[in-house]
């Protein structure tokens, strides 16, 4: 509240972006976070040690 007035109503989200993200994740078989899908199609799930992550992201 500001000056004893409630805040103005905000924009109501439709939920569409969330729905489309969930549909994409399901179509790719993503069931856990984090999941990284590399350009070569390799899928890595779960947290990785920093050094391992760096080596996977290096060209």
Automatic annotation (TrEMBL):
It comes from the Bacteria. InterPro entries: Thioredoxin-like_fold, Thioredoxin-like_sf. Residues 18-57 form the Thioredoxin-like fold domain. This is Thioredoxin-like fold domain-containing protein.
């Amino acid at each position: 509240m500001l000056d004893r007035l409630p805040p103005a109503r905000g924009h109501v989200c439709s939920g569409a972006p969330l729905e489309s993200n969930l549909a994409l994740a399901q179509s790719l078989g993503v069931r856990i976070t984090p999941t990284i899908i590399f350009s070569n199609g390799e899928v890595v799930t779960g947290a990785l040690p920093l050094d391992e992550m760096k080596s996977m992201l290096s060209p």
